[in-house]
Design goal:
Layout (H helix, E strand, L loop, with lengths): L26 E3 L5 E3 H6 L15 H8 L5 E4 L17 H12 L5 E8 L2 E8 L10 H17 L3 E7 L7 H20 L4 E9 L1 H4 L8 E4 L10 H8 L10 H6 L5 E2 L5 H12 L7
Parallel strand pairs: 5-6, 6-7, 7-8, 8-9
Antiparallel strand pairs: 1-2, 3-4, 4-5
Helix pairs in contact: 4-5
Length: 286
């Protein structure tokens, strides 16, 4: 890939990608300008230690945080999307899928797994924003539904970690059907009296918010996460008014009763299991 920028002052014409001063991945700069070594960031649950900014992470990192010793059995590993509508915008949907798989190493925008968390079984479904913006298509809905079925059959709690731009437009109505399908599955889980915890991370928007992300027995979020249906710009243009400060942040939603609590990532495993212990009337584990 050619560089868009060359330094020409003093005869310097080094391509930006050839600069060796700071190897890619060694440092991370948060939106507030704080710089932290990548290794220190990982040790701190991918939270910038100076400003507490929660960096976007994916299923790999969440599984490491939640499952004991990072041991788990992944479900429906090779399930991948097709292109039944032969959708084309600036490029073919089939090409976008191949590119996303190649770039991320993922088969779609969600991974599901079962393992031990604080010594007890837990089913986790975690979305990956890196795969086409965490968009919800047929495979996302099907994998979440199957994970709920596993939780129901084995009578163990289900945790959904949402991180999504909403429904996948390349699958049109097939994508929208996943809102209903996952909602029905969660209703069945509730009838079986199996706990469902929904964790909203940055961002949780669109059809994801309109379905499983806000249907938890308990709805929680990470600090500063963007959570909403339509984006702030669209809402502002629709209502024709300036939006309140902090609109659609996790803190704003908690203040207005849409969330039960906000959890720092370092406390996530403990708080999820504390809730499970309370709702299932188990002795509180350390």
């Amino acid at each position: 890939m050619s560089s868009w920028f060359k330094r020409k002052e003093k005869g310097i014409q080094t391509l930006t990608e050839e600069k060796k001063d700071t190897p890619k991945g060694l440092w991370y700069k948060s939106p507030t300008g704080k710089i932290v070594e990548a290794e220190d960031l990982a040790k701190n649950f991918y939270v910038s230690p100076e400003d507490d900014y929660h960096v976007r992470i994916g299923s790999k990192e969440y599984f490491e945080i939640l499952f004991d010793d990072n041991k788990f059995k992944e479900l429906d590993i090779k399930m991948s999307s097709k292109d039944p509508l032969k959708f084309v915008d600036t490029k073919k949907y089939s090409e976008r899928l191949k590119a996303a798989e190649s770039k991320t190493g993922l088969h779609d925008a969600v991974r599901t797994a079962i393992g031990k968390s604080n010594g007890k079984d837990l089913v986790v479904a975690c979305m990956d924003f890196a795969f086409i913006g965490g968009s919800m298509g047929s495979v996302v809905g099907e994998k979440i539904s199957r994970a709920i079925d596993v939780a129901k059959k084995k009578k163990i709690p289900f945790l959904m970690i949402s991180k999504s731009g909403g429904a996948r437009m390349m699958e049109a109505a097939l994508s929208l059907m996943q809102l209903a399908k996952t909602s029905v599955k969660l209703a069945q889980l509730a009838e079986a009296k199996i706990p469902y915890i929904s964790l909203c991370t940055d961002p949780t928007t669109g059809g994801t918010t309109a379905s499983y992300a806000m249907l938890g027995d308990i709805n929680i979020a990470e600090p500063g996460a963007l959570i909403g249906f339509a984006g702030p710009r669209i809402v502002k243009d629709t209502v024709g008014k300036d939006l309140p400060e902090g609109f659609q942040t996790a803190e704003f939603l908690k203040e207005h009763g849409f969330l039960d609590f906000i959890s720092h990532r370092r406390d996530l495993k403990k708080k999820v299991n504390l809730y499970i212990d309370l709702i299932t009337n188990q002795p509180v584990r350390a």
